[in-house]
Write a structure and sequence with these properties.
Mean pLDDT: 93
Low-confidence stretches: 1-5, 12-16
Radius of gyration: 21 Å
Number of strands: 12
Helix content: 40-55%
Order of helices and strands: HEHHEHEHHEHEHEHHEEHHHEEHEEH
Strand content: 15-25%
Distance between the termini: 31 Å
Amino acid sequence: MSSSRRAFLQSAAWSGVALAQTGPAASTVPPERRVYLVGDGVISTPAEYARLLTRIADEHGIAADNYLQGGAVEQLEQRFAKLLGKERAMFMPTGTLANHMAVRELAGDKRRVIVQQESHLYADEGDGAQLLSGLNLVPLGPGRATIRLDEVIPVVERSAGPPYPAPVGAISIESPVRRSSGEVVDFEEMKKICTWARERQIGTHLDGARVFLAAAYTGISPTAYAALFDTVYVSMYKYFNAPFGAVLAGPAAMLNRISTLRHQLGGMIYHGWEPAAIALHYYEGFVERYQAAVKNGETLIRLLEAQGKIRVERVSRGSNIFVIRLSGGTAGALQQKLAQAGIVIRGAGDSAQTMIQVNETLNRRPVEEIAREFARAIG
């Protein structure tokens, strides 16, 4: 993705997310019918979060944890360890910490880690792995999601060679890649890299923050993705809609060591039952709901294009992010008009383009009705 396009998407994101978090103020549409074409999941206000937690507690009960031990946190960990086919899973307060801890432990005393240049670990985590753990992240594949085995091999060989060897200890792959507009990494290339790395005892980590979204678009299950890697991280807030949190899964012995590091690096919190309970709530039936949302998203795109005033750009090997271009008017004006109808999109002022994201709020109203609201808003 070009730097100008990335800057546009980031500026559009701020306006859309701000509107989504406060709700469409001018709209009389009830919350259960509001459609948020921003973000990967359901956006909730503080009051909505409070009501949901109360309902979960009243209807099912919530078992409290103590410093992330037991209770709903343990239930969440067990559920995702089984789902991802790993020995153990561990709750982390952030995905940044999950990625950092995984590559640190996988690399061991080998401090060099191969990453995608567009990855969150390399570009969006404040050099935390470098600063706090002395790791040397080696970026590959500028401007694209997929890195190839033929790029990885020479880096590994040069790093291990004389006169001053600094061998590669781990490889991290993010998929889908948010900085590449949700582009999914080529699965066959991913398999080649992981197989080659395993033969050479190089650890592999999957930044699978959005792997459940990828699964809906590729037909490859999260379990199949995770099976390629030693460790995998999944976000609990992006589409399982918790207020914060992540799950890191992998070998039990490694996660036992990471448990101590989590505390040392400030990630041990007193209670995690609130995000755990909400993530478990949304996990039930998520796959079916999201498959329905993907189907609705395809229908919406087809209906919008048929109106003749919107052109939709698909990302090559994309997932749930689509760029839309208007033949007349501005995205900012469209955003404000749609907000009155209870539909939130990103806006970018006078720009004629913005983007929409497919999430399960597309299931809240008939997709034909949503398309009609776009038509009214465009005029």
